[in-house]
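re: that complex we talked abt at group meeting.

here r the seqs, copy pasted straight from the sheet so there may be weird spacing, ignore it
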Amino acid sequence: MTTQQEEPQNDAAQVPDTLRVEHVAKRFGAVTALVDINLHLGRGEVLGLLGDNGAGKSTLMKILCGYQPPDSGQIVLDGQPVALRSVDHARSLGIDTVYQDLALVNQLSVYHNLFLNREKVRWPLLSNRTMKRLARQYLDEMGVNIPSVESDVAALSGGQRQAIAVARAVYSNAKILLLDEPLAAMGAKEAAIILDLVRDLKRKGDVAVIMIAHNYGQALEVCDRINLLQHGEITFDKPSAETSVAELNDIVIAEYRRALEERHRQSTNSR
Amino acid sequence: MSETAQRAPGVAGGGPADASAGTDVLARLRQAGLFLVRQREATVFLVVVLLILYFGLINSTGRSVFFTHAALVNLSVVAAPIMTIAYGEVLLLICGEIDLSVGFIYVFAPYVMYYFVQYYHVPGILGIILAVLVVGGGIGWLNGFLTVTLRLPSFITTLGTGFVLSGLVLTLAHGEQAPIPPVLDNLGKWFGSSANFSMIIWAVILLAIFHVLLRNTRWGLHTIAVGGNAIGAREAGVNVAKIKYGNFMLTGLVGAFTGIMISFQTNVIDTFAGGAAYQPMFYAVAAAVIGGTAMLGGSGTMIGAFLGGAVLAILTNGFEVIGISAYPLQIYFGGAILIAMIANVQLARLRGEGRIR
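got the structure back, here u go
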């Protein structure tokens, strides 16, 4: 654990990281959600954030996307400490979150969803033709396969919808994408769409990604580096090439055993 | 409408069923059915045409009374207020709200116009504009404030403001009617006189404006987004509160304007004591729903509301014209609303299944 906290400092000596999280802590009443979070995200890097339910992933994501402030610690963007005041503020700084299925409006077409709140307008009217053309172009560039940009989003598959949500974030000039379980509840074929998309983003290298994932195999497939979040702390930080599903499983299972034993000990003590 | 219901299961059958459908005629019928299902306005339009044919031809003992100038003016006077108020309700329903108070805005606005013109000597046309802006915009804003800022459900908010307005009108007017101020007499022919088509012309002008607003502007797009997925819309940076406030105010404006037109048409400013003022609102919401607007938000059309208003007006008026008892009228109304709602719900379900396919 201690090695992790020193590692970011070494990296920073060369190029400033796109994002650094330093000693971030957050508690809700008696519950400490985040103890001391330190992580770094390089330029164009894809970081996989793994961890059990209740480890603090969503709290960390909410802090990173500007939804809530940390109690202590700081967030450093391109070498500059920032206080994220709101989701909009974070977004204006280039941090964009893509939520599973929450982002899109089913009743609107693909291109209207892509340009929602950033519509091309020839006042007072929408420039639908321009938006259709650009939507087609963006999706082709990203390798997202959608039969028609005019079809309602409701008619698309989960993977396609997620892909559109990601495309929207990318084309709104996001520098850091936070993908909150982009592969949850998705079949292999669907997940492949998103994995391809993330790979493509990585190849282009303009956008850094933090991806919360449950499936270690998929995470190792696309992520440059894996961080493991346990009990509000980053307990593991290795490049994907240097770890394996087996190692990650071992760590998590060992942790699980420890927790079981702990609980057992407590219950016998109290008796 | 019944054809919609019959054809609808074909959609659920989907791809594999298509192959086994067999003959050409069946396939073509299915195509037509699918068109009617997809183009909701086409279904309602068909109903309007059938109703016109029915009432136009049923009693043609020589010359049809349905198509006389007087009957058509009368029809348009019944239809127009339903339509104009429905445009506002469509916007509100799409963004997930409703305004039950619009009927009382409609009663209140002409009194305010009367006070402006009669007591404060505001020039006629300015009096109309001021009354529309102050009453429509003001009450609309209040509804927005209570619903959006104080987070009451709009159903309750507007029920409350409706009662308050109703009492306010009766108190201010001492329960009495007021005449149209003489200064305004020459304006009547432009704003809803019972002798011409001015009212329905306004309904068509407003249809064009509201249709473009809903289909071709950011405002309309954001209204759909807010009703379809409020969280997603907020995530994308859409100002949800602004959209809702604005649509309450737009509904207030059309409500106030419609009320003033009605006062010119009846040539008197009436308190509509009691619950009578709920009627225009109920008709307008019914028109919106018959026209395909979803009560749960996210979808709806202005043309549908226009046609829905036409259906209700033709039903109301048609019975009078052909001289049949108007007692069962409400039965037809209820039936039309129920059929429209069934179609709405079932279509939503079929689309849901279509997604899985």
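couple things i noticed - Chain A has one domain: 2-240. Confidence is low (pLDDT under 50) at residues 1-12 of chain A.
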